[in-house]
Amino acid sequence: MLNNWIYDEYKHCGVDYSKEEHADEYDREHQSFRDYEKEFNSMIEFLGLSNTQELSVIDLGCGTGATSIFATEQFKKVYGVDVSDVMIHQAKKKLSNKFSGNIEFINAGFLTYNHKDEPVDLLITKAAFHHLPDFWKQIALLKMNKMIKKDGILYIFDVVFDFQANDYKDRIDKWVFNFEKNAGQKFREEVETHIRDEHSTFKWILDGMIERAGFRIENCKSNDKFITEYHCIKIKDVDID
Ligand SMILES: C[S@@+](CC[C@H](N)C(=O)[O-])C[C@H]1O[C@@H](n2cnc3c(N)ncnc32)[C@H](O)[C@@H]1O
Q1: In ligand 1, which atom is closest to the CA atom of 132?
Q2: Is the CB of 82 under 6 A from ligand 1?
Q3: In a domain, 167, yes or no
Q4: What are the tens digits of pLDDT across the range 72-111?
């Protein structure tokens, strides 16, 4: 029976990453205020990983490969997964032949990706999880649990709200203003779209969902109460189709 109530994760919410022109511009825009290599190295440091060459990793919502491409240089095996085929196409164009043997790109998402190989040591999701509404975030976390080995790591990097709700206007205005100052007007519009049309949630909600999906939060870091990094450990298996 076809479940007509299942969330369609290919129908983009907010910024539309299925458009070719957006994928083309993505790296140019993001690299005006992001250093992908520095981000990758600081993630490895945050997670305390020293043996990456022995590890397998899934990058869910890999986009144009900001993380996956650096991972190919260090990890044993990389799976880059994204609902947008044009973002994946862009990632493939950037891949150097030297490191293309240990990566697979898969056009699927948090809810639809069916990981057929052995569970991985590390699952990363960077700036993508907020595309799901909260109910579906919980389902996705349960599915992620099945993709990760026992004692394996879940790394989430996303916009998460860690402030009292009654403060929301002032907090969000200041955050949007700072983005414009650091990254320009175009990016201001992107973060306005993020707040208005995408599904970032409160930290206390996301913490609860992570723990209910069989993970322990080992460490959580946020410098501005918005952009948040989670280091989680899978402590038990969960049951989900
Ligand atoms: C802001 S980009 C982040 C890309 C990359 N992780 C980075 O750090 O640059 C968000 C990505 O999430 C993808 N995405 C949106 N909904 C998704 C879903 N349900 N499952 C997997 N990826 C999704 C989009 O296609 C887009 O490539």
Answers
A1: 19
A2: yes
A3: no
A4: 999 999 999 999 999 999 999 998 776 789 999 999 999 9
Identify which of 165, 222, 158, 228 has the alpha carbon closest to the alpha carbon of residue 194. Answer: 158
Paired tokens of 159: 């916009």
DSSP assigned state of 102? G
Ligand 1 atom closest to residue 109's alpha carbon, by position in its atom list:
20
CATH number for the domain harbouring residue 158? 3.40.50.150
In a domain, 241, yes or no: no
Contact (Cβ atoms closer than 8 angstroms) between residue 128 and residue 199: no
Q: How many CA atoms lie within 13 A of 183 on its CB side?
A: 19
29, two tokens: 């825009």
The answer to whether residue 91 is domain-embedded is yes
> Does a structural domain hold residue 230?
yes
Domain of residue 153 covers 20-162+199-234
Total structural domains within the chain: 1
The pTM assigned to this predicted structure is 0.97
